[in-house]
Amino acid sequence: MVPAYDQMQAGKPSTLTKWGAWVSSTHCFDATLFGLSAQEAAMMDPAQRLLLEETAAAVAGSGRSLAALHGSDAGVFVGCIWSEWGEALALQQGGAGRVGPRWLTSSQVVTGNGPAFMAGRLSFTFGATGTPLGDPIEIGAAAAVLCGPWARWAPVALGASKASQGHAEPAAGMVGFQAGLLELQQAAAAPFMHLRSLNPHVAAALEQAGGASSQPLLVAARQSCGMPSKGQAGTEASCGVSGFAFQGTNAHVVLKSATIERSNCSSDPSPAAQPLWQRNK
């Protein structure tokens, strides 16, 4: 990326990004394993190929088979972002065909229904984007629910994975999801890193909900905040994780602490054969 960046600095059209991470060998894709033809695989977005491969690797790494997972209750969580693959294919084909760049000027894109959005045929008119505006709205909504007269009195901690992990873009929801799992496992909410003073608009949102000092909505500042352990006065810890997409799609998942089941795996240290992947018997 550095040579291309240097060309941009010299006034030549290239790239505004000095650093980048590239995925190699995306063409090395076993289409037959996933029941796809070579023609379908060639037109697929490389991100979709990687998603299938990583999913297969996760199943194989868990020691389970596809037959054992078929029909079972399982949670699948994916962080995704817009795709530029269709535009790249259109440029390679001179802009012809149904994947051409004409969709860029489509009225559907204006209403949030463009092919770049993976939420489906949904239209959103308004969206609160930006930390100074979005954060107080989000905190105010959480305070209205958690600090209302119907709320059970229990310690509630606010957290933000961006404070410690940075802006993860499409993976931000997954980062928060993993952080929530770790906090439930450790029975403690992680502190806000680099927090020096609270946004006055956020403080106002808390006060409007009834007062930050008298309500159970807390902000974990520079030290971790303990959670109630399961079995302690009949309580159990829970966690809510929100993910917000640029075009207006919001997702929220509620996690609860659970008892870890004993593993059925043998503790025998002797060598054993384990197939990496098996599609058929």
UniProtKB/TrEMBL annotation:
<protein>
    <recommendedName>
        <fullName>Ketosynthase family 3 (KS3) domain-containing protein</fullName>
    </recommendedName>
</protein>
<dbReference type="InterPro" id="IPR014030">
    <property type="entry name" value="Ketoacyl_synth_N"/>
</dbReference>
<dbReference type="InterPro" id="IPR020841">
    <property type="entry name" value="PKS_Beta-ketoAc_synthase_dom"/>
</dbReference>
<feature type="domain" description="Ketosynthase family 3 (KS3)">
    <location>
        <begin position="2"/>
        <end position="260"/>
    </location>
</feature>
<dbReference type="GO" id="GO:0006633">
    <property type="term" value="P:fatty acid biosynthetic process"/>
</dbReference>
<dbReference type="InterPro" id="IPR050091">
    <property type="entry name" value="PKS_NRPS_Biosynth_Enz"/>
</dbReference>
<dbReference type="InterPro" id="IPR016039">
    <property type="entry name" value="Thiolase-like"/>
</dbReference>
<dbReference type="GO" id="GO:0004312">
    <property type="term" value="F:fatty acid synthase activity"/>
</dbReference>
<keyword id="KW-0597">Phosphoprotein</keyword>
<keyword id="KW-0596">Phosphopantetheine</keyword>
<feature type="region of interest" description="Disordered">
    <location>
        <begin position="262"/>
        <end position="281"/>
    </location>
</feature>
<dbReference type="Pfam" id="PF00109">
    <property type="entry name" value="ketoacyl-synt"/>
</dbReference>
